[in-house]
Amino acid sequence: MAEREDFLTRRCVWVNGPVIVGAGPSGLAVGACLKEQGVPFVILERADCIASLWQKRTYDRLKLHLPKQFCQLPKMPFPEDFPEYPCKRQFIQYLEDYAQRFELNPRFNECVQSAKYDDTCGLWRVKTASTKAASEVEYICRWLVVATGENAEMVVPEIEGLGEFGGEVRHASEYKSGENFRGKKVLVVGCGNSGMEVSLDLCNHNAFPSMVVRSTVHVLPREIYGKSTFETAVVLMKWLPLWLVDKLLLILAWLVLGNIEKYGLKRPSMGPLQLKNALGKTPVLDVGALQKIKSGDIKVVPGIKRFYPGRVELANGDNLDVDSVILATGYRSNVPSWLQEGDFFSKNGIPKQPFPNSWKGKAGLYAVGFTKRGLSGASLDAARIAQDIGKVWKEETRKTKKFSACHRRCISQQF
Ligand SMILES: Cc1cc2nc3c(=O)[nH]c(=O)nc-3n(C[C@H](O)[C@H](O)[C@H](O)COP(=O)(O)OP(=O)(O)OC[C@H]3O[C@@H](n4cnc5c(N)ncnc54)[C@H](O)[C@@H]3O)c2cc1C
Ligand SMILES: NC(=O)c1ccc[n+]([C@@H]2O[C@H](COP(=O)([O-])OP(=O)(O)OC[C@H]3O[C@@H](n4cnc5c(N)ncnc54)[C@H](OP(=O)(O)O)[C@@H]3O)[C@@H](O)[C@H]2O)c1
């Protein structure tokens, strides 16, 4: 009986075109570009909506950090009446409109469990499990586009004693607002963009945040004298070498923010852009947290030694009473958990080749959105991938039309 049920819930689907895994901005961008090339495709998404990172795993006060022209997806700019830095709600609206305009209809609630290239038939076999019902589908396709993102899973570090701490512990991806933390002493672990903004939000809700800074961090103002810091860097990089742009950015940051080291925020020895290029570490673009650090409303504390019930011992031996902990400790790719391939992706789930060569692997494998360059990097990848697949698709459909009946136009056939 069990065997019979198992048999009844398995299906096999032939996809005439690529399978795209993930309906975040990257997967949607590839879909829109493929539409223009006339190539059919299927998008598989584990969540029940597009852009699930933005819709379900980000805090309420989030805004795009970069001006909107650097965050738009291919073929559709942001509406003119959107502000320079759209808020989360506006960005999601833009993505919903994008999906509608290009008629992108992902298959929701289908989590890819494995994908493997079958040498014998020269095709990819992509297995999904439904997140709603006990059913599995195997998709068979010639091209596989990995669009599951650099932030697919949260990083939860193992910290001694955390299990016996007793208070609430949650990751930044589960944090919505400081509303529920009023009057509480909150330890925010991590000082990336998430840690800084969560700490600021907690302050704005009358909580008492202490932010753990265990190493070094580059903090830059979001704007320098009214102009976006990112845009300034992009312009400077056209004319000057990276190291010199870094030096100029740090001088400008010093003029705007002052010396941040005296507040416990030690800068790395490598400049912010060089560090981003070498290690993918994003500088913090400050949107107000630094002012709260200067005023003492956000306390900067060193690394954690261990937790005890209701308190934490820090690396310098100090003890802090703590009610709640927010782990703003970052994210990781989940590609190694499902893609059975060891050539193109490294063990940490990021392509081995850096930008601009990180988009194309062997045997019809592609990656979009793994360049550590946010939405603008994803848009560049998407256009390249669609062009590459579109070229082969057009050549082959032309041949097919000439010599035999045209059978390749249907999106998928089930058997
Ligand atoms: C808090 C936060 C703020 C950010 N702000 C900015 C910003 O302002 N500007 C910027 O450029 N970048 C920003 N980023 C970076 C962010 O990664 C990109 O903006 C963007 O979301 C990347 O899109 P993506 O489609 O590559 O990945 P994601 O948005 O993560 O989408 C990947 C999709 O794949 C799905 N998926 C994952 N695994 C599977 C599976 N096995 N099967 C099926 N589906 C799967 C996920 O559910 C998800 O919907 C931010 C990131 C975070 C965490
Ligand atoms: N508004 C926005 O646009 C916005 C907002 C938030 C996030 N983002 C983006 O989202 C991505 C993820 O950002 P993020 O801030 O969530 O993650 P992140 O940049 O990876 O930062 C993680 C932080 O956690 C620290 N950390 C990790 N483990 C730790 C431990 N055991 N003890 C103490 N500290 C620990 C790291 O310190 P070390 O450096 O010492 O490892 C680092 O400071 C980035 O690309 C970021 O730019 C954008």
TrEMBL record:
EC number(s) recorded for this UniProt protein: 1.-.-.-
Membrane listed as a keyword: no
InterPro entries: Auxin_biosynth/cation_transpt (IPR050982), FAD/NAD-bd_sf (IPR036188), Flavin_mOase-like (IPR020946)
Keyword Mitochondrion: no
One Pfam family recorded for the sequence: FMO-like
GO molecular function ontology, one term from the record: flavin adenine dinucleotide binding
PROSITE patterns noted in UniProt: PROKAR_LIPOPROTEIN
Swiss-Prot/TrEMBL keywords: FAD, Flavoprotein, Monooxygenase, NADP, Oxidoreductase
Catalytic reaction annotation: indole-3-pyruvate + NADPH + O2 + H(+) = (indol-3-yl)acetate + CO2 + NADP(+) + H2O
PANTHER family per the UniProt record, alphabetical: FLAVIN-BINDING MONOOXYGENASE-LIKE PROTEIN (AFU_ORTHOLOGUE AFUA_4G09220), INDOLE-3-PYRUVATE MONOOXYGENASE YUCCA8-RELATED
Family: Belongs to the FMO family.
Record's protein name: Flavin-containing monooxygenase
Annotated source species: Aristolochia fimbriata (White veined hardy Dutchman's pipe vine)
Cofactor(s) needed by this chain: FAD
